[in-house]
Amino acid sequence: MQVFKAMMKIMRKRLPSAMIYIIVFIVISILVTNASTKDNKFEVTKLDICVFDEDDTPESRALTEFIGKTNDIDEIENDRDAIIDALYYKRVNYALIINKGYAEKLAAGDTADLFGSYHIDENYSVVYIGQFLDEYTTSVKAYLAMGKTVDEAISCTEEALSQHTDVDMLRVDKGGNSHYSVDFAGYFQYMPYILIAAVFTVICQVLVTMNNKDIRYRTNCSCMNSSKYTFQLIFGSGLFVISVWLLLIIIGAVLNKEMYTGRAWYAVFNSFIFSLVVTAMAVFVASFEPKENVLNIITQVLSIGMSFLCGIFIPMEVLSDKVLSVARFLPAYWYVKANNMIADIEPFSRSDVLLCCLVEAGFALMFIILTLLVRKVKYSGAAIATSAKKAAVSH
Amino acid sequence: MFMHILKYELKGGLRSKDLIIWLILFPIILGTVFKVGFGSIYEKTEKFNSIPVAVVEESENKAFRQVIENIESADEPFITASFTDKAKAEKLLDDGEVEGIIFSGEKLRLTVKEKGLRETMLKSFVEQYSVREKIAMDAFETAPEKAQQVIETLTAETVSSCREIPVTQGNPDVYAQYFYNLIAMVAIFGSITGMTVTSRRQADLSALGARSCCSPVPKSISVLASLASSFILQTICMTVCVTFLAFVLKVDFGDRLWLVYPTAIFGGILGVSFGFLVGSFARVSEKVKTAILMTTSMLLCFFSGLMMGNMKAIVAEKAPWFNNINPVAVISDCFYCLNIYEDYDRYFTKLITMAVTIVIFITLGIIASRRKKYASI
């Protein structure tokens, strides 16, 4: 176990910089979990609307109140930049201005130009609220035409518009007592990113040190065979990854304020398998001996790239089928798919979740085999002899 | 002497190809991933398109069919309907071909699969039908003599009651901000080159540092020369990055692309100075310095919304001052301003913030690195 011991020694030396990475990523994952409790659905049925009431009459206030019944009314500073920011970042979906003279025009039955709206693009909310406003004013106008007073017309309109049609869902939510809330699924969803980013930077650095030319040559002339060497590396890295994983799981339980129960254990199992994949991937990347600065950038490309393609940073539902069919060739896709099933975002089935885990394990195996191959080719006696010869010639 | 050092620093920087290549490859790979990943999300989910819906006629309802046909004949129809039978409609809904099924009979019924805005719109469309029915009934009950007039009011083509006031000419795609953040990230990764400037000047960290410490050149000149070379290298990276995003991936930066270049380059200089500052202050090994730089960069990127699109809005709500001092957020905000705002007020504020930060970083860095003596190594 000399290799393993040497690895542990290097790791101990690298602990300070490793801890910086791990702490920062844990902070990120805590922030993500807290932030994602606010909107875990991509589209919400209740729109956020801000109303600038320039008319300020009982009629306009009645309209604002009525809009507020089915939507959320947000207060926003009446400043062009603030409104643009809010609309762009979707903090409000619609910025409505009730023009001056609304009440008078409405009473006269004139429905043109009653409102204004700050407009960034033609999105669904704009169309929806536009239709709603038209419907509201037309109805008021119709009641006025029946000879009702404005007040009566408004209350009749509100009554008419408040009728509800029951909507059936094609598939009823199975929900049940799954012990795995959507917030919590968010924590697990971001875990692959944390694992890849934190683990890669630490493990690869250690492995690159182990690959240092002088140390390599010394190991190569010993009697240890290369696959044994590689397996000890994998074992050492695995031990480190699993301790990071354990830490994340414990923090998860603390954040969730209860011990894992029921279906949450599937998520724990799923993340465990994924951490094995990350180990194998890290060992694989390290066998190409990247330089340290480059390694950091490669890590970013891998972690962020995979997170975007596989639905970690943006929900899988909104990614196109083409992207998803490419993502199938990446391990994080299967992790997220399993996590979605456990969280009931997709229909849950035990065998499918286990199948996803199996695919992930397959990826881990593939990376281990590839690593063995790369190392065999790179560090074989013949390869070293050629590189030594090249060096001699160039001198 | 300045030019001499600059020349050799440049040569050295270009020869250690790895870093430059990766700094250039990095936005190319991630940019492509972004483009592939959500190139069409905006068109698909945010921008209004006709909502596909299946209509199942349980019994004859000519009036409703008439309504649907009227709607479909419009230029930009609100819904596109396909008339079919129940089994087929359910299959369409399950496959996601349509957003909902309207069963038309005595009463309209709606079946959907998801809960979202489009489903809500369908619901309100179905309700609209019953609202009009109720109004007509009310009319017949209260004032039958005026009923005809009421129905005319309801069916008359009306002008929209709401006038839209466009607030921007820019690209409203909220996903474009991921590209802004990507450029900002490349800029802040310039901190790695900035840091090497310092470690090449610190005798305890590199042989080159030991050599340059015993040379008679004033430290300020040698530091400024190698900073200048890092700026030049970073400028190359930023230019390639923006060119690739704008012309190969065709990311829409609004109509002021010529200003995007200097902004990105300025951001790159900010990144390099950031690395220089951290490198000069922290008297630790290069590995720990890299760790500090990488993690702070990642955190700053995170708060600017690289990993979660709505993060910047959340920060703006909870701690607005942080967006003004977070260099990544400032850089990406510049691109946002160029795209969305018509005036330059806020853009210039951000640029001045960047300039001030650069000056502070470099001054502090030089103060920290001057007069450092290495008695023995």
UniProtKB/TrEMBL annotation, chain A:
Pfam families named in the record: ABC2_membrane_3
Matches recorded under Gene3D superfamilies: abc type-2 transporter like domain (3.40.1710.10)
Name assigned to this protein: ABC-2 type transport system permease protein
Statement: the UniProt record of this protein carries the keyword Transmembrane helix: yes
Cellular component terms (Gene Ontology): membrane
Membrane-protein topology: Multi-pass membrane protein
Main location: membrane
Gene Ontology molecular function: ABC-type transporter activity
Top-rank taxon, per record: Bacteria
Membrane spanning stretches: 190-208, 229-255, 267-287, 294-314, 353-374
Alphabetized UniProt keyword annotations: Membrane, Transmembrane, Transmembrane helix
Subcellular location field: Membrane
Start and end residues of each ABC-2 type transporter transmembrane domain: 20-372
Automatic annotation (TrEMBL), chain B:
Listed name of the protein: ABC-2 type transport system permease protein
GO cellular component: plasma membrane
Annotated compartments: Cell membrane
Native organism taxonomy: Bacteria, Bacillati, Bacillota, Clostridia, Eubacteriales
Transmembrane segments: 20-38, 178-197, 231-251, 258-278, 290-309, 321-341, 347-368
InterPro entries reported for this sequence: ABC-2_transporter_component, ABC2_TM
Main location: membrane
Topological category with respect to the lipid bilayer: Multi-pass membrane protein
Keywords: Cell membrane, Membrane, Transmembrane, Transmembrane helix
Name of one Pfam family that matches: ABC2_membrane_3
All copies of domain ABC-2 type transporter transmembrane, residue ranges: 17-367
Coiled coil: none
Gene Ontology molecular-function annotations: ABC-type transporter activity
